[in-house]
Amino acid sequence: MITILSGGTGTPKLIQGIKKIYDEEEINVIVNTVENDYFSGVYVAADIDTVLYTFTDMINEDTWYGIKNDTFITHERLAEIGQAELLRIGDKDRATKIQKTLLLEEYPLSEAVDIQRKKLGIKSKIIPMSNENSEIKIETEEHGEVEFHDFLIKYQGKPKVKSVNYSKVNPNPEVIESIKKSDKIIIGPSNPITSIMPIISLKGVKDELIKKEVVAVSPFIGEEPVSGPAGKFMSASGHLSSSIGVAKIYESFLNTLIIDNKDLDMKETLEKIIPNIKITNTIMKNIEDKINLAKLTIEN
Ligand code: GDP
């Protein structure tokens, strides 16, 4: 049994590889929830939905958000009647979000997601990190404090970042149970600040991680993340924007860090922080890349 800690872009790519080489019933995925919010009256748990669509091979791999070949009739009509929405929610994707919103009237988020993944025929457990609502705000130099999705979409991730702030929430009890039951924990190449830190800073999580074999894949090559604003968020949070910064964040519990071939020169420094450093191609362009990286995370 393995537990994967995930955000909504880098780790889902790795999950595509892992599910090809590991029994789906033996995989649990703990997913970040701090970015969840309501848009156009529906509950949007973007990272959870990305993981749901990754397991069902429906994910739109151009954006790592929403369903491939979706239509946008409702999104466009909303704009026509003066109700333009920030997120570009597709029609089929909106159905998932409506279902989750309705289930949330009766169940906590963890049960709502469990019902959805079973209806989709997914054998792996998808565990939201918390059932509590949260907020995430980015303090910027140009616009002051902005909502996370405004930072990414309205301002296209361009402003200078002063700090990243999110609510402290309690873990869904299944988070701790899943880590306890697992032989190995895999931290995918997700944004350490906005996707992984919210999970590992949940009460009790680090205490359990210390007892386990934990392997992480770095989302950085050199001083740049493979994609997205992780570099800015690392610097604003007082960390180096590189695999060395990642190593320092995970230092207290991490056994193995997988870094890219191009970062060979960091190996010596990294070995002083993390016991085991593995080097490979960490860019996941095709399924072979994903399976190769998955094998390295699974094997000892
Ligand atoms: P978010 O929830 O959409 O922010 O997504 P995640 O936190 O899961 O993933 C964002 C991170 O994935 C970024 O920091 C990227 O550097 C990383 N990433 C995306 N694609 C790849 C890849 O192919 N390889 C590696 N190593 N990292 C990747």
Structure description:
The protein has 300 residues and is α/β, with parallel strands linked by helices. The chain has 13 helices and 14 strands. Strands 5-2-1-9-10-13-14 form a seven-stranded parallel β-sheet, with helices on both faces. Helix 1 runs parallel beside helix 2. The longest helix has 13 residues. The two termini are 14 Å apart. The mean pLDDT is 97. The structure holds guanosine-5'-diphosphate. The site of guanosine-5'-diphosphate has 22 residues, from helix 1 and helix 8.
Q: In percent, how helical is the residue content?
A: 25-40%
Taking all Cα atoms into account, the compactness measure Rg is 18 Å
Largest sheet: 7 strands, parallel
Overall geometry: globular
| Secondary-structure class | alpha/beta
- Helix tally equals 13
Could you state the order of secondary-structure elements as H and E?
Answer: EHEEEHHHHEEEHEHEHHEEEHHEHEH
**Taking all residues together, what is the mean pLDDT?**
97
The parts where pLDDT drops under 50 for at least 5 residues are none
List the topology elements.
Blueprint (H helix, E strand, L loop, with lengths): L1 E5 L3 H12 L5 E5 L5 E3 L2 E3 L1 H10 L17 H8 L10 H13 L5 H11 L5 E4 L7 E5 L3 E4 H7 L6 E6 L6 H9 L2 E4 L4 H9 L4 H5 L3 E5 L2 E2 L2 E2 L4 H7 L6 H8 L5 E5 L6 H5 L4 E5 L6 H12 L2
Parallel strand pairs: 1-2, 1-9, 2-5, 9-10, 10-13, 13-14
Antiparallel strand pairs: 3-4, 6-7, 6-8, 11-12
Bound molecules: guanosine-5'-diphosphate.
Guanosine-5'-diphosphate (GDP) binds next to α1 and α8.
